[in-house]
Specification:
InterPro entries: Cas10-Cmr2_palm2 (IPR054767), Cmr2_N (IPR038242), CRISPR-assoc_Cmr2_N (IPR024615), CRISPR-assoc_prot_Cmr2 (IPR013407), GGDEF_dom (IPR000160), Rev_trsase/Diguanyl_cyclase (IPR043128). This is CRISPR-associated protein, Crm2 family. By secondary structure, the protein is an alpha+beta fold. It is globular.
Length: about 675
């Protein structure tokens, strides 16, 4: 190991102070660069009816890539120092933890390593076999099947495993010629030899994936009701409680937590979307009711549903704030499944007494059940440019810098993401956190705080534990530790889908991914900007709304902190009437084609001010109204940046800025009114 003092390697800026880090000394002599990937990813993960299946798909890929990584660590000459990406040392599977932390998927579906020429090919083939065998061993363990079973055959054909190897000793001139032949383009003049090789191997991997190995399996009979691709089997064959036929692949995801229970000794409880959506309601409920009222509610529930599974087996971490401070009665109420609070839902259809009691409680304490939740997809912007060295201003890309990029991404994934989504009483649940990729379910009450912190912590824009886009050295300081991030030049784009809990999960997943792509493809003044978030709202009625915004515009104002959150607060306190949206829409039809400017800005602010409502006595009403109008105007002036910057999605010729702005306002009102 080589001890080095360094500047921040990624932001291109001199740090106020240097700090120590340890990275392996990486020699390239007699070595080859290798990429190893496991697929399919999206089609495999997104085929899910339940949140637990969605999580299981992500975890299974992380668990399988770990088998390959472990083999490289144990059998290669350089051991774990061979692996450039991902950074392993703090990974839960690497540390062999035996607690809830190990149940979070944090490893990507690929790795990059530098291996000895004389061992590389054999090692990669062994990794491929180990991954394939581990998947089949899991199936045999869970389903007690043989190699002749059709379920086994389905799983045998599931994985798409590819690896590519490229010797590092060829001259830069030779690699430039190879790059030209592969891409038809010229490499950058100042590109380093290592950057050139990483670019070439990525091109080779893309070409390799295009050559699919196809083994035809005839899938007869009724198809699996989850994926719709493979033949479904009676669920009893796989010890699954269900009424519809399921294929071996989807059955494996549904039962995978049973395998992990045996492997790690940990019971895995993953909340449903309705439990995520209603988590804040249940917290408000237990804080409002006294002991007698709590017991009355529990007695009613027991009488109606005592013979049913109406409670979650455990309180899921992340959905409840401080569990230890809760009384036994409060814990029992918090464990009631969210569907049993939906007065209009199927569970309470015949339960007149419970419905009456809940209506009475809701009216007395002014409580409202939110039936909507958010699914977010986050992806780092321009990660290819980071790996190629294009983002390393005044520095030549080397394996050491590549290693530091990996470490920065792992720092973010392991030290911050779970805390942001599930900590601080946020009531969210992570699906996947693998460096520059995050997938999570979020309760709407905390949505914008989660989005903002995920963005700020990724680039290290944090000062005194608060997101601050002007804090730009890329080092987050916590409890005496300096934590490396990619730095202020890094950014992310996010796609968010807000949906009713009855919306099919696969459709919500598809929409969230589409929003993430829309955020990346948005264009301002002719330049693709990325560094944005896009929100799609799917109402239970079928209506949809979509809006895109940057995290901040040229004036540097934080859109969420200075624009969205203050407005949301006013809406939640019922100081702004929702009729503002309808009035604004009607006026915009009359003003269609009007360019953003002072007239339009002033008119929007005027309309909003007219919709301010004040619940005060006559003497205080005027001063309170003026104060609220001032707050509203400040918030709107920040949000108006959204339509002042000419925006459109790639391939669309005409921007529609004002309706993008109105859609965002509608979504903010929808969240503030808890799904109304």
């Amino acid at each position: 190991m080589k001890k080095i003092f360094k500047e921040h390697p990624l932001s291109g800026e001199q740090l106020i102070k240097t700090f120590e880090d340890y990275i392996p000394e990486i020699s390239l002599k007699n070595k080859s660069l290798a990429i190893f990937t496991i697929g399919p990813v999206q089609s495999f993960i997104s085929a899910a009816k339940k949140t637990k299946e969605y999580w299981a798909g992500s975890y299974l890929l992380s668990y399988l890539i770990w088998q390959a990584l472990k083999h490289i660590m144990e059998e290669s000459k350089e051991g774990e120092n061979s692996i450039i990406y991902p950074y392993l040392k703090n990974q839960p599977l690497y540390k062999d933890l035996r607690n809830e932390e190990i149940t979070l998927p944090t490893l990507p579906n690929r790795f990059l390593a530098i291996l000895e020429n004389n061992e590389a090919e054999q090692l990669l083939e062994e990794c491929k076999k180990m991954v394939e065998n581990k998947l089949l061993d899991i199936a045999i363990n869970l389903f007690n099947i043989s190699k002749e079973d059709k379920i086994y055959k389905q799983l045998e054909e599931l994985l798409e495993i590819y690896w590519v190897l490229l010797p590092l000793e060829k001259s830069k001139k030779t690699e430039i010629e190879r790059y030209r032949s592969l891409t038809g383009m010229e490499p950058a003049n100042d590109i380093s030899h290592y950057s050139l090789v990483t670019s070439i191997i990525e091109e080779l991997m893309g070409a390799r994936k295009n050559i699919r190995e196809f083994n035809y399996i005839e899938e007869k009979g009724v198809k699996c009701y989850i994926c719709g691709e493979r033949t479904g089997f009676e669920p009893g064959i796989m010890n699954i409680e269900d009424e519809k036929k399921i294929c071996g692949v989807c059955g494996l995801k549904r039962k995978f937590s049973d395998y992990l229970k045996t492997e790690f000794g940990i019971e895995i409880h993953y909340p449903s979307v309705i439990d995520i959506a209603t988590a804040d309601y249940k917290e408000e409920l237990v804080s409002s009711l006294d002991k007698d009222e709590l017991n009355q509610l529990l007695n009613y529930m027991d009488k109606e549903f005592g013979n049913q599974d109406y409670q979650m087996p455990e309180l899921v971490n992340g959905l409840v704030g401080d569990v230890k401070s809760k009384s036994p009665e409060e814990k029992k109420v918090l464990k009631i499944k969210g569907t049993y609070f939906d007065i209009e839902g199927n569970e309470l259809k015949e339960s007149i007494k419970v419905k009456k009691l809940l209506k009475k409680i809701n009216k007395k304490y002014n409580l409202k059940l939110n039936k909507y939740y958010a699914l977010l997809y986050m992806d780092g912007d321009d990660m290819g440019k980071w790996v190629s060295g294009e983002k390393l201003k005044h520095r030549e890309m080397t394996p050491e810098f590549h290693y530091l990029i990996s470490k920065s991404l792992t720092n973010y994934s392991l030290k911050f993401v779970k805390r942001i989504v599930e900590g601080k009483g946020r009531r969210g649940k992570l699906v996947y956190s693998g460096g520059d990729d995050v997938v999570a379910f979020v309760n709407l009450k905390n949505l914008f705080e989660v989005l903002r912190e995920l963005r700020g912590y990724f680039s290290g824009n944090v000062f005194d534990n608060q997101v601050n886009y002007k804090a730009s050295d890329g080092i987050i300081r916590e409890k005496g530790e300096d934590i490396l991030t990619l730095g202020s030049k890094a950014s992310v784009s996010m796609g968010i889908c807000i949906a009713h809990y009855k919306e099919p999960l696969h459709f919500v997943i598809k929409n969230a991914r589409a929003m993430e792509k829309k955020a990346k493809k948005h264009i301002i003044s002719g330049n693709r900007k990325k560094n944005a978030f896009a929100i799609g709202l799917i109402k239970h009625s079928g209506e949809t709304r979509e809006a895109v915004s940057k995290w901040f515009y040229d004036d540097g104002e934080d859109i969420i902190e200075k624009g969205i959150k203050p407005l949301l607060n006013l809406i939640q306190k019922e100081h702004i009437s929702q009729s503002f949206i309808y009035t604004l829409k009607n006026e915009m039809e009359l003003l269609e084609g009007l360019e953003a400017g002072d007239i339009l800005d002033d008119e929007i602010i005027r309309l909003m001010k007219r919709k301010i409502t004040v619940d005060e006595d006559e003497e205080k009403e005027d001063s309170k109204r003026k104060k609220l109008q001032k707050q509203t105007e400040a918030s709107l002036k920040v949000l108006q940046q959204i339509y002042k910057n000419r925006y459109w999605i790639e391939d669309n010729k005409e921007p529609n800025n004002i309706y993008n702005f109105i859609n965002l306002l509608e979504i903010i009102f929808f969240i503030g009114k808890r799904g109304e």
